[in-house]
Fold this protein.
Amino acid sequence: MRPLGDIVTMGERRQQARSMLVFSAIRLPLSEPTAGTWRLTAYWSKPMPVTTNRSIPPELVHSTIQKHLIGDGFPIVMDLRKSHGSWVVDAATGTEYLDFYSFFASLPLGFNHPAFHEPRNARRLLEASFHKPSNSDAHTQELAGFVETFASHALRDRFRHLFFIEGGALAVENALKTAFDWKVRKNLKAGRAPLGTQVVHLRQAFHGRSGYTLSLTNTQPAKTDHFPKFAWPRIPNPKLVFPVDERETARVAKEEEAALSAAREAFQAHPHDIAAIIIEPIQCEGGDNHFRGEFLRGLRELADEGEALLIFDEVQTGFGMTGRFWAYEHFGVTPDLLCFGKKSQVCGLMAGTRVDEVPDNVFHVSSRINSTWGGGLVDMVRCEIILEVMRSEGLVENAECVGAQLLRRLRELEAESPHFVSNSRG
């Protein structure tokens, strides 16, 4: 091996790309003037073997994956280069399919939007992909630019705090931890026991499949059975059945009162122990269940009365999906905490000023909530590009317009063929 400084030729510099950088640390002898210190020398090791990007033929993709993974995905092989807009191309056959899946509603611009191929944006994504920094501690210009862009697009009303992490379930998880911490500290300050362990949630809710969220999710038993869970208060979900006429309004109003009554009983049964009420403004996996603003306002009042935080899980409903940036904007109800993910690429939560009723809340205490990466930097750069496109192309407003057109046509079909189309909603 030679010291790094001896490498001077262009040929050798190209060779560096295939070599391994090795550090040698030597403790200096006592006779040296700097005795007891360490000298760090960098060397290039022998060249690493050149590897090529192996391409698995489309006809072998599924069998290759199934050697080590469950491999129960779609029967097509997605061609990420040729897929475009809302169309998925099967690499095996060249067949195009209209995409109603969009990676579990996490693909906001479709495939290969031109913005990603602009030289500046392609370079931003490439440079961010070379490293995966711990964003919570290792700050970069890329992180600062993303935070500024995200805040300018996404923060509304009283929201001021942000927290980023990888995965929607972990976004909800940390929202719950925020609420637990907030409630316990409130109780301690009031001279009470360190209570704050209960979460009121709804039937047919889906909030994730990890840790605390397993105690909330109750859609498909296969996703939660046999895993340890907490017996937190679960209340009915007074979902609407469309079209909403006077009869339906009267019916759902009774169900709303029953659900709110169940929530009140939970507060009474667990005095000072309810840390949060959590709800999806529209239940997604649970059946695309819609609620009235009156019900959400009732939950807001209960949370205020019971000194609990109101959490809206907008991992799936947020980011312009409903014709507003956040679904809660349709209802005139602002939560204390909002969880986001999927279309935002990077997941996390935002918090309003109510958490600051506790000065030493999780947003003010270092590492009280955290993760190794604090969200992925590549996801952040991609999110920033998406936000720029959403604003420049007016995509949120477009979703409202096109959504209304689609709903109108669905209701026309429902009127024409009520035995085949029913409960159209959006």
User: Anything to note?
Assistant: Residues 61 and 67 are 10 Å apart (CA to CA).
